[in-house]
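Help needed: design a sequence for this.
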């Protein structure tokens, strides 16, 4: 079985939690795009793991893979491996594989990301992890790949071709080009390359072979649908394709092999960084979502912007991903609100829309049309099955399911594994 899991909104929907929950049924869990801009939180009892690169299926028996469509900062990966090992979790090449063609985030990508962002009049609010510039190099065929960093001579060979254009790009943007050929940094990358060398594999081959053998594979998306570089709210997006089809092209597996596509949908909406968010709240309800939902970016610590559930954006996510099911997360966060609102359409220039306009500046001009449902006060975090939810919460979930037209397969009422049930 091949399942693809993606975020349906602007990221941080709870992908990490749901992947961890599902991983026991999968032989392989594969990250297919993005880099350490992602922050996926997995909570097991008292332990909280914030993973940026290692797929969230790591804690169970599945083998986890980082696919060639990702961009990888080797230092962040090495720190993550150290963090897991300190917690008593051993990372071996049997457990983790990295595709040989994975693009490496170099120090100059991070430098260029910072310089470009500070030179923008209207910011994107990137995570400054060098993501966009690493993807530019992938497309321009100027990347350094995983396989290139394991020997000093191969890395120096690659850099001798790339360095002049990187140095002049940094100089042109008013930065210090010293980071491009910094000797200590190059040696450090070679050390990291040697350390990570044993993990190198061919992800497409592994995934296709596993599927041939009747094994189960889960593709773990990063970011969210509306941060997709092609279909998202440009320019306020990330630099990779975050939707389900991207799992096939980035892993190297045919679309005929896909069995399920699960959308992770937060019961409200959040966004980190700039860009339109039609239901954004600046009132007490917004503060409630922020405080109770602990809405701070996992990677940057920035406060996440919060708003009511936005159906037009989720409808678009359903089209873009072809969801066969949905996991609805953070329903517990809505407890204590007098009424809960869902945006069922937008008002734009006197017209009511039930689907987002294609142009980002028009999304930014939309004002939400709401349907109000009664709230509830009960704490949901100990609820173990759907029928034990208070009536108002059940009605909220059922109404969302009806409006989305896609079955809600999981309901999540807390960060822990046990705080999840089937609907
Ligand atoms: P991801 O990027 O999609 O993996 O999501 P993040 O891990 O960045 O953000 C989701 C946050 O919500 C994490 O801190 C999770 O532990 C937490 N979380 C996930 N599901 C639930 C839930 O149902 N209720 C609550 N209260 N927290 C949750
Ligand atoms: P997970 O996987 C939320 C946002 C950034 C910024 C934009 C571009 O945890 O859901 P980038 O550094 O990618 O060039 O920044 O994308 N962004 C995320 N927002 N969750 C994420 O990942 C994100 N990854 C990138 O805040 O607005
Ligand atoms: Mg996150």
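Sure. Designed sequence:
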């Amino acid at each position: 079985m091949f399942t693809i899991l993606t975020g349906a909104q602007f990221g941080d929907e709870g992908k990490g939690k749901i992947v961890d929950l599902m991983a026991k049924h999968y032989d392989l869990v594969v990250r297919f795009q993005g880099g350490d801009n992602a922050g996926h939180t997995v909570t097991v009892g008292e332990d909280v793991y914030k993973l940026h690169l290692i797929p969230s299926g790591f804690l169970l028996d599945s083998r986890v893979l980082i696919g060639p469509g990702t961009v990888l900062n080797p230092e962040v990966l090495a720190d993550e491996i150290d963090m897991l090992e300190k917690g008593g979790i051993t990372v071996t090449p049997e457990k983790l594989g990295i595709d040989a063609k994975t693009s490496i985030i170099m120090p100059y990508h991070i430098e260029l990301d910072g310089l470009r962002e500070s030179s923008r009049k209207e910011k994107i609010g990137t995570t400054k992890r060098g993501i966009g510039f690493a993807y530019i190099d992938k497309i321009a065929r100027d990347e350094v790949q995983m396989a290139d960093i394991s020997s000093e001579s191969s890395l120096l060979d690659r850099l001798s071709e790339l360095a002049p254009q990187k140095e002049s790009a940094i100089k042109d943007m008013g930065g210090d080009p010293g980071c491009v050929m910094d000797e200590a940094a190059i040696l450090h990358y070679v050390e990291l390359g040697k350390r990570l060398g044993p993990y190198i594999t061919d992800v497409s081959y592994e995934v296709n072979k596993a599927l041939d053998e009747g094994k189960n594979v889960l593709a773990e998306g990063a970011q969210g649908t509306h941060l997709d570089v092609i279909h998202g709210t440009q320019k306020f997006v990330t630099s990779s394709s975050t939707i389900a089809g991207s799992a096939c092209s980035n892993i190297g597996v045919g679309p005929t092999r896909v069995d399920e596509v699960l959308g992770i949908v937060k019961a409200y909406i959040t966004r980190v960084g700039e860009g339109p968010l039609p239901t954004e709240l600046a009132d007490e309800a917004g503060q409630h979502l922020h405080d109770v939902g602990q809405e701070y970016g996992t990677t940057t610590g920035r406060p996440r912007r919060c708003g009511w559930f936005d159906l037009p954006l989720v409808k678009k996510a359903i089209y873009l991903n072809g969801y066969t099911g949905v996991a609805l997360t953070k329903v517990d966060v809505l407890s204590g609100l007098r009424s809960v609102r869902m945006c069922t359409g937008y008002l734009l220039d006197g017209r009511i829309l039930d689907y987002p306009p294609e142009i980002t500046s028009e999304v930014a001009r939309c004002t939400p049309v709401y349907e109000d449902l009664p709230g509830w006060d009960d704490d949901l975090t100990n609820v173990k099955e759907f029928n034990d939810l208070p009536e108002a919460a059940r009605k909220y979930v059922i109404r969302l399911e009806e409006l989305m037209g896609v079955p809600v397969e999981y309901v999540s009422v807390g960060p822990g594994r046990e705080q999840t049930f089937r609907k």
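The CA atoms of residues 5 and 262 lie 5 Å apart.
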